[in-house]
Write a structure and sequence with these properties.
This protein is mostly helical and about 850 residues long. α5 links the parallel β3 and β4. α22 runs antiparallel to α23. About 45% of the residues are buried.
Length: about 850
């Protein structure tokens, strides 16, 4: 379930809708202001206004770049050509608004880093009543000057906190039945911060949804969850990530001033650090200056954030929150620099933390070479009571004291095959799948042994090797090679965890292809194995659960998919199959009718995995995000994601983009490429065939449409899927049913429940001559008759027809007539 706000915040929706000129939403990183605006927009609050949504820009964006982006998005929304850059980007934006006076609603998200943003917004508002602005920011700036004295402008800030009723609604959204006392306690303990409340709900669901918590136990759960969210935000901010310890120290006292910052350790530039804190939204100006000295501006952390930083920074972190401490390490230093995390743990003699880092980051530390030198320090300093039974310490001792035959000091005592596996693991975690596949290619040509003749130890070693090869090929996108290696791993790994993990990944591979019968067989094989004790279970179960969700979604069983993804939870930063999780969650969001929530969830998680956005991961994420954008009517964003792709998994989104955008001919071209058939993806083939059927209908070719629809039915029945039939706009249902083909689904109720894609309103601007030619075509004219009626030459009419066809995206008279009935022609 996406960790976003539900549509229960209607008290704020009415505020946004009521102020027709300007609504400014101010709040820190945990307030949920961006999600509030996105879910408000998803309700289509102002259908007569053309929305222009601009996401939060980079922190170093220049005004010229930012306003150029706004102008370009405006042109796309209005369906007009972008002007030649003969003036500044802001002046161009104003010129466009003056020339095209259609009502426009700008939604400018996260504008704190845009220079002089308040002045520019004021200038846009002065252009006239056809301009409306919704702005979100972490900084108060000078927005009050634009709002004061204007009855149709407002600032929303303090009202962003969740009420008890909204917390209760979010609990229901997460499938949690909580009594009023618990809901009130969560709201008070989190101070109603949207991000904290949503994270607590996710944690409750991931733990035991029906468990009744006492006050102390509930405090522990809420506090540990808040700590994760806070440190996650610190680690995600590039200006603060390398100053994490100073962030913790700065909270001790809560009031922050320039003089207190300058006294912090590890801070070379106190001004830059204070600026980073204020721009991050972590601190807020004090309501009074009673705590400031010598006229300094005083800032403070919100109390819930303050308590969290004090807990995390304490040398005596509460024992009951120790599991959260380990998770904090994952979200914080370990996310990018586990070697620094280990160094800090040794430095402060935090042995338990150090061992935890070694256990969770073995491959990364081995690859960086840090474990060898720091391991020696650990062995010299660890207390005796921590070196007796701990397996990690024992392994550490063996590795750091190993010698080679020549007597050279400090060598790694690993056999070559294990070194290769560790190297592959390191390359995979870096997202270097091409390099990893080259390593596999060099070893995969070795003869495959007869596994039945090998002893168990040797056979299992081969199973582990093939499992790693198969995983590399799966992540790299070479599905055929992945299937071969994973089947070998399943055979050779019989009797150990390798057998189960290979079955799960084979299930995922088949589910991604849309071969649900084969995927179900491998899911059942994976479920035959008992769970593994410890954290290894969380790593192994991902593939099988995602495969279960994808198979259920292909069969329009959203309940089973929701339960599987809920059991899986949010992927850790070490999860290799994170993109498959995002892909499944995106599909669930589409079928559940909440594309905005799905897109927000993926975008929020994507920052943790951006360094691994390659191979099949990039394909899956782009395919999911493109369809979510299309469901929201954002054709340009979808085009940027998949237009240049040739992968079969993005083919439905590419074809759908053209179909919804009024280019059925372009959709047919993609349908005819046969990418899905080449990669043995029957579900993708069925979806493309259905899109092809609708495209042919819109081009006036019913015979071709019927042929496409019959192919869609055959492929869908072969794959055991029904989801492809709800991937077209509801406006096409009547035409599809009129073809007289027996479908494997009752299309009317299915589209009513699951259909989410709508036609994207396309405006085509024609010259007077082109419009006259089009009107003549609609009246039944030909090129010859049009030339006679308009007293021009035949060549002139042919030139005008070519121009008309190009603008309509068609290639013939019949296609032009069909297209003209669907587009807005101006």
């Amino acid at each position: 379930m996406p960790r976003t706000l539900p549509l229960s915040r209607r008290r704020l929706f009415s505020v946004l809708s009521a102020h027709s000129e300007l609504a400014v939403i101010l709040g820190g990183p945990f307030s949920g202001k961006t999600t509030l605006v996105d879910t408000w927009l998803a309700t289509d609050p102002c259908p007569e206004w053309a929305p222009v949504v601009i996401p939060e820009p980079a922190h170093d964006v220049t005004p010229e770049t930012y306003w150029a982006t706004v102008a370009s998005s405006l042109c796309t929304s209005l369906g007009v050509d972008e002007p030649v850059a003969a003036e500044g980007s802001f002046d161009s934006l104003c010129s466009i608004l003056v020339r095209h006076p259609r009502p426009v609603m700008f939604v400018l998200d996260g504008v704190r880093s845009v220079e002089a943003i308040e002045d520019r917004v004021g200038q846009l508002l002065r252009l006239g009543p056809q301009v409306r602005m919704v702005v979100t920011s972490r900084a108060a700036g000078s927005w009050a000057e634009l709002v004061d004295g204007h009855p149709h402008r407002t600032i929303v800030g303090d009202d962003l906190a969740f009420t008890v009723d909204e917390t209760a609604a979010l609990c229901r959204l997460f499938g949690l039945a909580r009594d009023q006392r618990t809901i009130e306690w969560i709201t008070r303990r989190t101070e109603g911060f949207a991000a904290f409340v949503a994270a607590v709900c996710a944690t409750l669901r991931a733990e035991k949804p029906d468990r009744v918590y006492g006050t102390d136990a509930l405090d522990v759960l809420v506090d540990s969850t808040v700590d994760l969210v806070v440190m996650h935000a610190v680690a995600a901010d590039p200006s603060l990530a390398l100053s994490s310890r100073s962030v913790l120290v700065s909270a001790a006292p809560n009031t922050v001033t320039e003089s207190s910052i300058s006294a912090l350790p590890h801070i070379d530039d106190s001004d830059a650090f204070l600026t980073a804190l204020t721009e991050s939204g972590l601190i807020e100006a004090c309501s009074t200056d009673e705590n400031s000295t010598d006229g300094e501006t005083a800032w403070r952390y919100p109390e819930v954030v303050h308590r969290s930083l004090l807990r995390v920074g304490s040398a005596e972190y509460p024992k009951e929150l120790w599991d959260a401490r380990s998770a904090l390490i994952d979200y914080w230093l370990q996310r990018s620099r586990p070697d620094i995390a280990l160094e800090h743990a040794v430095e402060r003699r935090d042995w338990r933390c150090a061992i935890d880092i070694v256990e969770k980051n073995w491959v990364a530390l081995y690859g960086s070479g840090s474990l060898r030198s720091l391991g020696i320090v650990l062995l010299e300093l660890l207390p005796d009571d921590m070196t007796t039974n701990d397996r990690t310490v024992a392994s550490l001792r063996t590795i750091t004291r190993a010698r080679n035959k020549a007597g050279e000091p400090e060598q790694w005592a690993f056999p070559r095959s294990f070194e290769t596996i560790l190297r592959l693991g390191s390359l995979r975690m870096q997202g270097a799948y091409d390099e990893a596949m080259e390593v596999c290619d060099g070893l995969a040509t070795e003869p495959v042994p007869n596994f039945e003749t090998l002893d168990d130890t040797t056979r299992h070693a081969h199973g582990l090797k093939y499992l790693n090869f198969g995983t590399v090929y799966l992540l790299g996108g070479r599905t055929t090679d992945a299937g071969t290696m994973l089947r070998r791993a399943h055979t050779a790994g019989r009797g150990v965890f390798v057998e189960r993990e290979a079955a799960g990944k084979l299930a995922l591979l088949e589910a991604l292809r849309g071969r649900t019968h084969e995927a179900t067989r491998w899911i059942e094989e994976e479920l035959r194995h008992p769970p593994i004790m410890g954290e290894a279970e969380a790593l192994i179960r991902t593939a099988g659960l995602v495969a279960t969700a994808l198979v259920a979604l292909d069969r329009l069983d959203t309940g089973t998919a929701f339960r599987a993804l809920s059991e899986l939870g949010t992927p850790r930063h070490t999860e290799e199959l994170w993109a498959a999780v995002m892909y499944a969650r995106g599909r669930l969001a589409l079928l559940s009718g909440v594309p905005a929530d799905g897109l927000l969830y993926i975008d929020s998680e994507l920052q943790h995995f951006s360094h691994r956005l390659t191979g099949i991961s990039a394909v899956l994420v782009d395919a999911a995000r493109a369809d979510l954008h299309l469901a929201l009517g954002e054709a340009r964003a979808a085009r940027e994601l998949v237009d240049s792709s040739t992968h079969p998994l993005t083919a439905p989104a590419r074809a759908r983009l053209r179909l919804l955008g009024g280019d059925p001919g372009g959709a047919e071209v993609i349908v005819h490429r046969g990418d899905a058939a080449r990669e043995h993806c029957p579900a993708v083939g069925a979806e493309l065939a259905l899109i092809g059927s609708v495209a042919s209908l819109r081009l006036g070719r019913r015979t071709d449409a019927r042929r496409h629809l019959q192919r869609a039915v055959v492929l869908a029945e072969h794959a055991g899927v029904t989801r492809p039939f709800v991937g077209v706009p509801p406006s096409a249902v009547r035409d599809i049913l009129s073809l007289g083909v027996d479908l494997p689904i009752d299309l009317d109720p299915a589209m009513a429940e699951y259909g989410i894609f709508r036609e994207i309103r396309v405006v085509v601007r024609l010259t007077p001559r082109e419009r006259a030619v089009l009107d003549a075509l609609l009246a039944g004219g030909t090129a010859s008759t049009i030339a006679k009626e308009q007293f021009v030459t035949l060549n002139t009419v042919k030139t005008q027809l070519r121009s008309l066809y190009r603008k309509l995206g068609v290639h013939s008279r019949e296609e032009a007539i069909a297209q003209a009935h669907r587009l807005v022609v101006g």
